[in-house]
Specification:
The complex is a heterodimer.
Chain A (H helix, E strand, L loop, with lengths): L5 H19 L4 H19 L7 H19 L7 H6 L11 H12 L6 H11 L5 H8 L3 H17 L10 H19 L10 H17 L4 H20 L19 H13 L8 H14 L8 H14 L5 H15 L1 H14 L6 H11 L3 H14 L3 H17 L15
Helix pairs in contact in A: 1-2, 1-3, 1-5, 1-10, 2-3, 6-8, 6-9, 7-8, 9-10, 9-11, 10-11, 11-12, 11-13, 12-13, 13-14, 14-15, 15-16, 16-17, 17-18, 18-19
Chain B lengths: L1 E8 L1 H4 L4 H21 L2 E6 L7 E6 L2 E6 L8 E9 L3 H10 L9 E6 L9
The chains are: A mainly alpha, B alpha+beta.
């Protein structure tokens, strides 16, 4: 059966849902979602043989019919039938207000009435179009947990007040930005293994970030987030090597970066008023911008990058040890591997199971010529990760290390410091 | 008849694989999954984390006690498995020979019959 590309579904489903929620109200979110699901099934059945001229208008019309059918067939709601049926208003021109609808849905899902975990789950499902299984995979949680979060979020939304409008209140925007960031990160780092990018999810994150930036042009954090997702996407062509292999930043062929996307991101950063108090996304975008401006890893402004990471640690109040890890990497480029390795030991004492710590240590040991120690650290790093692509990358480094000189320890200590 | 094919791996062997060999193994598993799904013999497959991530729960003085590390310390360990529904043992073995690990010295496939299975909703 021929069906539209996954991307089209992912784009159309949230748009259709947004249309219905806007028409019938958030207290009918569940019913709207069911109706959209049924309409999508109808589309799967019919479009193969009879594709519509305007898929979006077709879906909205079908979902509305399905919605009305559902309301009608529900005996307990019979008394509401007439009122609900009247809501099936005639279609507009099918193009107006798409951006508004998507933003509205995004802000609705990120309503301050919801706890953070529910906001993220609901947005990834309703706006980004991820399945419950995909979200569960991204967060390494059971599917039932995610399903519960989504259900509770919808129930709570139905109980709360008026629809929010896009505004510049940073407190309200924060969860929206977080969710867009998660979408972009998930698109570029598929948790289950292969580093292959989820192109549709990446595109949707950029699309939504652009809409948000248009709606709130004065927010430096929104501009920073948009720049960050653009600069991340720009690196993609060089990030995945032959056969889906992961290529780390310092080995990437930078001529393959998407210059148009990178330049757009850099221009956004230039436009942000200098002197504005920088938030976490703007700072991360500035770091990505420094990478994007450097022709290779060696000529990167590592001093500036380590200062930006230090600032990022400060504004996030040291809550995220991965930021510290990244600062140590940058400082190693400036001050050498000795102080960096000592800093890693201190970080490990505070965060014994920090992901990537042994991988960073292995790289630093390799650079300082301590081949045997590097090999042991690579083995611990391979053992610690559950990401197949990362395992493969680390094993490859380990193999190259073995070829370069000192043979690996004949009795590899695979258990290492993890136990 | 259900069989599991256990993939026995040795980290010292895995880290010596060239990129081409890793590629061959990855592509081979993709093709194997596609073929056994097509034939209806595929039920499930899982790749497991390193045994250093294991916790072992066992009775100590009549009470369950949790310790870090694998049940058996060994150079080789089970890296993952395929669960298949096949005609007979001969077919299970035939399928095992099609798994790319069968062509890498130091890796091995172990075929064992399943005597009880509850696959939940799956």
């Amino acid at each position: 059966m021929t069906t539209p590309a996954e991307g089209l579904w992912r784009q159309l489903a949230p748009q259709t849902l947004a249309r219905l929620v806007r028409t019938y109200g958030r207290e009918r979110f569940d019913l709207c979602e069911d109706a959209v699901q049924e309409a999508l099934l109808d589309a799967h059945r019919q479009w193969a043989t009879d594709p519509p001229d305007d898929p979006r208008a077709w879906l909205v019309a079908t979902a509305r019919r399905r919605y009305v059918d559902r309301v009608r067939s529900d005996v307990r709601r019979r008394d509401r039938e007439e009122r609900e049926a009247r809501l099936a208003a005639p279609l507009g021109d099918g193009t107006a207000g798409q951006g508004d609808d998507a933003l509205l849905l995004l802000q609705l899902c990120c309503s301050p009435a919801l706890p953070r975990s529910q906001q993220v789950a609901l947005t990834l499902r309703a706006v980004a179009g991820l399945t419950t299984a995909q979200i569960a995979n991204a967060y390494q949680l059971p599917e039932t947990t995610i399903a519960q979060r989504i259900t509770r979020a919808k129930r709570r939304l139905a109980d709360t007040g008026a629809l929010p409008r896009p505004d510049g209140d940073l407190e309200r925007l924060a969860p929206v930005l977080d969710v867009l960031y998660v979408m972009s990160a998930e698109a570029h780092h598929t948790t289950s293994g292969a580093p292959a990018r989820d192109a549709d999810l990446a595109a949707e994150a950029i699309h939504l970030a652009r809409l948000l930036h248009d709606a709130v042009p004065d927010s430096t954090e929104v501009a920073g987030l948009l720049a960050l997702v653009l600069l991340t996407e720009a690196r993609h062509p060089a990030r995945v090597g032959p056969g889906g292999r992961l290529v780390p930043l310092d080995e990437q062929d930078r001529s393959r970066w998407d210059r148009a996307l990178a330049d757009e991101g850099l221009a956004l950063l230039d436009a942000v008023t200098p002197g504005a108090a920088p938030g976490p996304y703007l700072l991360q975008a500035c770091i990505a911008g420094l990478h994007a401006s450097a022709p290779d890893a060696g000529s990167t402004d590592w001093t500036e990058i380590s200062l930006l990471y230090a600032l990022l640690e400060h504004v996030t109040e040291g809550r995220n040890p991965t930021i510290t890890l990244n600062r140590i990497v940058a400082e190693a480029m400036v001050h050498g591997t000795g102080p960096a390795l000592a800093a890693l030991d201190r970080l490990e004492a505070a965060h014994p199971r920090l992901p990537r710590l042994d991988a960073v240590r292995a790289h630093l040991l390799e650079r300082s010529g301590r081949t045997g120690d590097a090999a042991a650290a690579y083995r611990r790093a391979v053992a610690a990760t559950v990401n197949v692509a990362e395992q493969r990358h680390l094993r490859e480094r380990l193999r190259r290390l073995g070829q370069a000189g000192a043979r690996p320890d004949p009795t590899p200590d695979v258990r290492g410091g993890e136990a | 008849m259900k069989y599991v094919i256990l993939m026995q791996v040795d980290p010292a062997v895995l880290e010596q694989l060239t990129e081409e060999q890793q590629q061959m193994i990855g592509d081979g598993h993709t093709a194997f999954m596609a073929a056994t799904k097509e034939s209806g013999e595929f039920i499930a497959t899982q790749a497991l984390g390193d045994p250093s991530r294991s916790k072992v729960v066992r009775s100590v003085g009549g009470r369950p006690e949790v310790t870090d590390g694998p049940f058996v310390e060994a150079k080789e360990f089970m890296g993952g498995f395929y669960l298949l529904d096949v005609e007979d043992e001969a077919r299970a073995v035939e399928l095992a020979t099609q798994i790319p690990d069968a062509r890498i010295p130091g890796l091995a496939l172990e075929v064992r019959p399943v005597v009880f299975a509850d696959l939940g909703d799956g």
